[in-house]
C-alpha cells in the first residue's frame, strides 16, 4: 500500500473516532433520529445539486439508503444516546469482521489462518468491551449490533455496485435516506423543531461535523479506498476507530475508563496488528487509479 493511502486511512479512522464525540454532544440537545435526519439533509443539500446518477446506479443506491442510512446510522445514533462514545463505537466495529466474512462468502475473497486469528483476537476485544457496564440494557446492544450489520452489508453493496463517484454516492445515499429516517423520527419522536431552535452549539456541531467531516470527507475517502484495494486489506484498519473513540471519550467527554475498556482496547490493537501485517502480503487486484481516471 502506498504511504499516502495509509495516511488517508489513518485520517479517516480519526475523523470517525471523533464523530462519536460530536454525536454525543449533538444528542444533548436533539433527538437521535432527528439528529440523523439533519445530518442527511445537510449532506444532500451540499452534494446532490452538483451530482447525477443513472437508473443502474439507483438500483444499488436505494437499498444502500436503507442499509447504510437507516440501519447503520439511525440505529447507531439511537444506541449512542444510551451508552458512552467509546463503548458505542466498539460494538459497532463488529461490522468490520462481519464485512470480512461476507467478503469471503459473497465475493470469494480468501481469508488465511493468520487473518482469521487476527479477526478472532479483535472480536474477543470487542466482546470484552461489550461487557462493559456502560451498556445499560440488552436492547441497546441489539441496536448497535444491527447498526454493525447495516455497515457490513453496505460495504458489500458498494463493492458490487457499478462505478459511482464517492461524493455522488454520499450525496444520493443521504438524499434517499431522508424519507425513511424522517418518517421514523416523525412517528417515534416529538418536539424536533423546538429542540433544533433552542439547540446550543453542541447540537449544531453534532450535525455539521457528522455531515461534513464524518460523512462527506471520511466516507468519500473510504469508498475510494474500498474500490481501489481488496476489502480484506482495508477493513481491519477500521478496528482502530473504537480505540481512538475510547481515548477521545475519556479525554474530551470524561467517560469512565474501566477494565473492560482497557483489556478490550488492547485486544483490538493486537488483533488489528496481526491482520494488517498478514494482509500487507496480499496482491492488490482492484483497478489502478490511472484506469479509474480514464473511465
Question: Proportion of β residues?
Answer: under 5%
Helix content: over 70%
Number of strands: 0
Global mean pLDDT = 83
Radius of gyration: 18 Å
Which structural class matches the secondary elements? mainly alpha
Q: H/E order of the elements?
A: HHHHHHHHHHHHHH
> How is the biggest beta sheet arranged?
none
Overall shape: globular
Number of H- or I-type helical stretches: 14
pLDDT below 50 for ≥5 consecutive residues: which ranges?
Answer: 278-295
Question: Can you tell me about this structure?
Answer:
α3 packs across α8. It contains 14 helices and no strands. The protein is mainly alpha-helical and 295 residues long. The radius of gyration is 18 Å and the shape is globular.
Topology:
Layout: H1 3-29, H2 32-47, H3 55-80, H4 85-92, H5 95-106, H6 113-130, H7 138-160, H8 166-188, H9 192-197, H10 201-228, H11 231-234, H12 240-253, H13 259-279, H14 289-294
Helix pairs in contact: 1-4, 1-10, 1-12, 2-3, 2-8, 2-10, 3-7, 3-8, 4-12, 5-7, 6-13, 8-10, 12-13
Write out key terms for the chains shown:
globular; single chain; 295 residues; 14 helices; mainly alpha
Quick overview of this protein structure:
The chain has 295 residues and is an all-alpha fold. It has 14 helices and no strands.
